[in-house]
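DM from R.C. (forwarded with permission)

"hey, sorry to bug you on a friday — could you get me a structure for this? deadline for the figure draft is monday and I only need the backbone to look sensible"
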Amino acid sequence: FGGSSCGMKTRFFQSCGGGDFSRRNFFKGLAVSAAFLCGEKLQAGEGASSVAAKAGGPKNIIFLVSDGMSPGVLTMAEAFSWQQRGKGTRWVALQRGGVAASGLMETASLNSLVTDSAAASSCWGSGSRVNNGSINQLPDGTLLTPIAKVFRDAGKKIGLVTTATVTHATPAGFAASVAGRDDEEEIASQYLGVVDVALGGGDVFFDPGRRKDRRDLFSEFSGQGYEVVRNREALLASGGGRCLGVFFPGHLPYSIDRDGEKTLGEKVPTLAEMTQTALRKLSDSPEGFLLQVEGARIDHAAHQNDIATLLREQLAFDDALGIALDFAEKREDTLVVITSDHGNSNPGLKGMGSAYSSSTQAFEKIGNAKESFESLHRWTLGKLEEKKELSASEWAERMAGGLGLWPSPAEAETLLGLAKGVPASDWNAQHSNYWGILGQVTGNLTGIGWVGTTHTMDPTILTAVGPGAGEFGGYVRNDEIFGKLCRLSGIEFRNPRN
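My reply, with the result:
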């Protein structure tokens, strides 16, 4: 981002001060027929929403998290969207409109410059930094009150939507307080009566047949008036009121795999569908609502150095963002905040070919993928168990069919060996594993490079529009978000801080 070759400057890291933003400054929903990006015309209706700010604070807050999104992902997702869909992303269009507050967020946890999702979401959810792995708990054992309980006491409804288990670290940071993020059974029980709408994966944490304590949380939620839904059709047909929707034992399948398998598409809703359903159920609240929407599997794909899967997850997140912006566009009382909790592995497109002339063509190869690295690996392990042996050429053919990329014989031998447990060394220690090597092998063809397979300390992109959006411009610490959300909502509450 920055200045484009056609002279149109993108206001990407625009630092906005306090204050609100009005409709007359917002290009009528950014259906800007006169806007061009290097000769590409913005299509009417494909821009960001014209969300007005009212004089007071927001009644509703929609907080969207592109989990694990390194800053460069937004640039690549925009290019990938144009290549694959013939249109840009809502997030970039929102930035281009010039009215959204834009900033950067510092992402450290209490005990590390590099945060995990639990500590990051706890910062937003309590206003205090905590150690990695903790959910709203200080090192001395003090439990902090999560924002869901604070807002619920103020009469607001609460919603959590995610493509991970609904009890995973990021949603939990808004609604639970536990010593460790892995205690998802306890997190599930803490949602009861606090969260009005919870949609995602993780039915194992509610099912009495799978919970260690045999507690039947499905019945308990139902007994307190929640509609419990277990598949896409039931979700879309559900009524108003409280709802618990869990659609998979663990995290929801990657979008690339869901879209490629009919049975998964019939069972598992998209992030956009879950977001739209949650807004429908929450919007009748007289005192408003707080909704967190997480594109969780962006982070997981980054850990696996899987660029095709990551970018499709980012576009699925952008579709959900579009639902949120369309909702807010029709009102003057809704604040939309979009960000990430941390970077992950910092993927980027490298210069390819003489004078980098092959970079665009290399990037286009990403669109040939039909499945995730995870799906390919699952097939590989299944074949090894079934046949006890698998040739490198057979594996290479399967990789070419699934990822649209042919490895060299040596690369195929190495990757198949890794799947069998044969170690392979790399000077980058984080890449000395199946995912890291596979990311490098595919990167040789797509031009995508990765710094590792773990989270990074980069500041994350922070964007906001609606009443109070100016609070999120400039350089913001992650533990300042809680206070901003409370203050804008007219709520006085402060947790202990380190």
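R.C.: lifesaver. The longest strand covers residues 157-165.
me: no worries. Residues 89 and 259 are 19 Å apart (CA to CA).
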